[in-house]
């Protein structure tokens, strides 16, 4: 199936979509080079965990939202092949293990982090447990998630809001800056 001239999985509801975010601190990361490397480490971690990463969005530099003043972030979205996915809880556990292996600590809510791997969507499943909420509770309100997700799957339908990713992006009230990363 083709979405906006981008070849997609046969059925986008058979895929999972993961957001990847790292802090882009030019002082600590040689002008973004080490930050981009952490994105690659996150992708490599997913592959090493047995997940089939089949497509990646471009990398976007985004300003922090819903948090205190801190440097910009680098964000992207990965599409994972649906027919080889573990159950959503196991997938989330693998993502958390990858974060841990890459030095993620949770010292402050919404604070700086070395890496953040979010399970945005898992097929068309809906879940609300103490461990996992699907779809991700706030991704539809965040430009830094919707822009790279729309790059990969603009016509993918949000399972509870019943709108496409493009429609959610067009209606978004968030005016935070999201631009293609230019190292």
Topology:
Layout (H helix, E strand, L loop, with lengths): L1 E2 L2 E2 L8 E8 L9 H16 L4 E4 L3 E3 L10 E8 L7 H14 L14 E7 L4 E2 L4 E2 L8 H10 L12 H6 L7 E3 L3
Antiparallel strand pairs: 1-2, 3-6, 3-7, 4-6, 5-6, 5-10, 8-9
Q: What fraction of the residues are assigned to beta strands by DSSP?
A: 15-25%
Structural class: alpha+beta
Average the pLDDT over all residues and give the rounded result: 80
Tally of discrete structural domains:
1
Oligomeric status: single chain
- The CATH architecture category equals 2-Layer Sandwich
Please, how many helices?
A: 4
DSSP E strands, number: 10
Q: What would the CATH topology be?
A: Alpha-Beta Plaits
Helix and strand sequence: EEEHEEEHEEEHHE
Question: What is the name of the CATH superfamily?
Answer: 7,8-Dihydro-6-hydroxymethylpterin-pyrophosphokinase HPPK
Q: Runs with pLDDT <50, length 5+?
A: 1-10, 26-32
- The share of residues in helices is 25-40%
CATH class: Alpha Beta
């Amino acid at each position: 199936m083709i979405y906006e001239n981008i070849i997609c999985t046969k059925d986008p509801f058979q895929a999972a979509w993961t957001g990847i975010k790292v802090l882009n601190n030019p002082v600590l990361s040689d002008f973004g080079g080490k930050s981009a490397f952490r994105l690659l480490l996150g992708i490599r971690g997913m592959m090493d965990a047995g997940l089939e990463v089949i497509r990646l969005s471009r990398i976007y530099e985004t300003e922090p939202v819903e948090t205190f003043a801190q440097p910009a972030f680098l964000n992207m979205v990965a599409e994972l092949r649906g027919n080889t996915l573990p159950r959503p809880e196991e997938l989330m556990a693998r993502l958390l293990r990858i974060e841990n292996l890459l030095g993620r600590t949770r010292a402050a809510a919404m604070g700086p982090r070395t890496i953040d791997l979010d399970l945005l969507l898992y097929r068309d499943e809906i879940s609300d447990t103490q461990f996992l909420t699907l779809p991700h509770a706030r991704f539809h309100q965040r430009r830094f998630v919707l822009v790279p997700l729309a790059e990969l799957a603009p016509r993918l339908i949000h399972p509870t809001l019943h709108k496409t990713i493009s429609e959610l992006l067009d209606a978004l009230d968030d005016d935070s800056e999201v631009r293609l990363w230019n190292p």
